[in-house]
Amino acid sequence: xxxGLKNLEKPTAIDLFCGAGGLSLGLQKAGFDVVCAVDDxxxxxxxxxxxxxxxxxKQDVADLSASDLLSELGIDAGELDLLAGGPPxxxxxxxxxxxxxxxxxxxxxxxxxxxxxFSPNAFLMENVPGLLGKR
Length: 135
What we know:
Strand content: 15-25%
Structural class: alpha/beta
Number of helices: 4
Order of helices and strands: EHEHEHEHE
Number of strands: 5
Distance between the termini: 41 Å
């Protein structure tokens, strides 16, 4: 283990698709040390940074390199306790009006790739029940 996590007593987490930070806040209240958050929306990241002191990155999760981020944080693959995220759900929502295709639906697969690459001890993915439907 590198110096990045060896002195931490709390389980560690990274929040992907963090938005303004609701999930990060819940994770902190549950006892996690959120070490980084990622979202591609400028306004969400600006809000996030107003509420949290850890690193918040404006980047598309589809373009995120787990190995680069782990290296920057001083963490090895497999050392992270939790990779959390809520990929966009609009394309899966049963309330959606319009065609069944939505380019954001692929972000669920990008989240799965990040799980593989970060190799956390656990992951948490939040989404809507429509994820299991035809969309």
